[in-house]
Protein backbone atom coordinates (compact mmCIF):
# COMPACT_ATOMS: atom_id res chain seq x y z
CA UNK A 1 0.00 0.00 0.00
CA UNK A 2 1.12 3.48 -0.72
CA UNK A 3 1.28 6.02 2.10
CA UNK A 4 -1.47 8.08 0.48
CA UNK A 5 -3.92 5.14 0.66
CA UNK A 6 -3.77 5.00 4.49
CA UNK A 7 -6.35 7.17 6.30
CA UNK A 8 -5.08 10.04 8.38
CA UNK A 9 -5.24 8.90 12.04
CA UNK A 10 -6.04 12.44 13.23
CA UNK A 11 -8.87 13.09 10.82
CA UNK A 12 -12.36 13.76 12.22
CA UNK A 13 -13.78 10.63 10.70
CA UNK A 14 -11.18 8.41 12.33
CA UNK A 15 -11.56 10.16 15.70
CA UNK A 16 -15.34 9.80 15.54
CA UNK A 17 -14.97 6.11 14.63
CA UNK A 18 -12.69 5.46 17.61
CA UNK A 19 -14.92 7.48 19.96
CA UNK A 20 -18.01 5.67 18.64
CA UNK A 21 -16.37 2.31 19.31
CA UNK A 22 -15.57 3.39 22.85
CA UNK A 23 -19.17 4.46 23.42
CA UNK A 24 -20.41 1.10 22.10
CA UNK A 25 -18.08 -0.82 24.45
CA UNK A 26 -19.22 1.24 27.46
CA UNK A 27 -22.91 0.77 26.57
CA UNK A 28 -22.43 -3.00 26.22
CA UNK A 29 -20.63 -3.13 29.56
CA UNK A 30 -23.36 -1.16 31.36
CA UNK A 31 -26.07 -3.32 29.76
CA UNK A 32 -24.29 -6.53 30.79
CA UNK A 33 -23.94 -5.31 34.37
CA UNK A 34 -27.62 -4.29 34.46
CA UNK A 35 -28.71 -7.69 33.13
CA UNK A 36 -26.47 -9.49 35.62
CA UNK A 37 -27.96 -7.50 38.49
CA UNK A 38 -31.50 -7.97 37.20
CA UNK A 39 -31.33 -11.76 36.82
CA UNK A 40 -29.52 -12.58 40.07
CA UNK A 41 -32.63 -12.58 42.22
CA UNK A 42 -31.47 -15.45 44.44
CA UNK A 43 -29.03 -13.24 46.27
CA UNK A 44 -31.69 -10.76 47.38
CA UNK A 45 -34.41 -13.08 48.62
CA UNK A 46 -34.66 -14.07 52.29
CA UNK A 47 -34.88 -17.73 51.28
CA UNK A 48 -31.28 -17.68 50.05
CA UNK A 49 -28.40 -19.59 51.65
CA UNK A 50 -28.07 -17.07 54.51
CA UNK A 51 -30.66 -15.15 56.41
CA UNK A 52 -30.75 -13.14 59.64
CA UNK A 53 -32.17 -15.14 62.51
CA UNK A 54 -31.63 -12.71 65.39
CA UNK A 55 -29.80 -9.51 66.31
CA UNK A 56 -26.56 -9.29 68.30
CA UNK A 57 -26.92 -9.27 72.04
CA UNK A 58 -24.69 -7.90 74.81
CA UNK A 59 -24.36 -10.19 77.82
CA UNK A 60 -25.03 -8.66 81.23
CA UNK A 61 -22.07 -10.55 82.75
CA UNK A 62 -18.93 -11.20 80.72
CA UNK A 63 -17.91 -14.78 80.01
CA UNK A 64 -14.45 -15.60 81.32
CA UNK A 65 -12.54 -18.30 79.51
CA UNK A 66 -10.59 -20.74 81.64
CA UNK A 67 -7.31 -22.12 80.30
CA UNK A 68 -7.20 -25.91 79.92
CA UNK A 69 -6.15 -27.79 83.04
CA UNK A 70 -2.59 -29.06 83.17
CA UNK A 71 -1.35 -26.68 80.44
CA UNK A 72 -2.51 -29.02 77.69
CA UNK A 73 -4.43 -28.13 74.59
CA UNK A 74 -4.08 -25.60 71.81
CA UNK A 75 -3.73 -22.53 74.05
CA UNK A 76 -0.82 -23.98 76.01
CA UNK A 77 1.67 -23.56 73.15
CA UNK A 78 0.68 -19.99 72.30
CA UNK A 79 2.01 -16.92 74.12
CA UNK A 80 -0.62 -14.78 75.85
CA UNK A 81 -0.09 -11.62 73.78
CA UNK A 82 0.51 -10.86 70.12
CA UNK A 83 3.93 -9.19 70.60
CA UNK A 84 5.14 -12.31 72.42
CA UNK A 85 3.75 -14.53 69.67
CA UNK A 86 5.39 -12.38 66.98
CA UNK A 87 8.73 -12.43 68.79
CA UNK A 88 8.57 -16.24 69.09
CA UNK A 89 7.62 -16.62 65.40
CA UNK A 90 10.55 -14.43 64.27
CA UNK A 91 12.96 -16.37 66.48
CA UNK A 92 11.75 -19.72 65.13
CA UNK A 93 12.00 -18.49 61.56
CA UNK A 94 15.58 -17.35 62.16
CA UNK A 95 16.51 -20.76 63.56
CA UNK A 96 15.02 -22.60 60.59
CA UNK A 97 17.24 -20.89 58.03
CA UNK A 98 20.61 -22.68 57.36
Automatic annotation (TrEMBL):
<keyword id="KW-0812">Transmembrane</keyword>
<keyword id="KW-0969">Cilium</keyword>
<keyword id="KW-1133">Transmembrane helix</keyword>
<keyword id="KW-0966">Cell projection</keyword>
<feature type="transmembrane region" description="Helical">
    <location>
        <begin position="15"/>
        <end position="36"/>
    </location>
</feature>
<keyword id="KW-0282">Flagellum</keyword>
<keyword id="KW-0472">Membrane</keyword>
<protein>
    <submittedName>
        <fullName>Flagellar biosynthesis protein, FliO</fullName>
    </submittedName>
</protein>
Amino acid sequence: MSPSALPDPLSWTELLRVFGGLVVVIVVLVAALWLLKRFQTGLRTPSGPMRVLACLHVLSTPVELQPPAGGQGLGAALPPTFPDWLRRAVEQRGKAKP
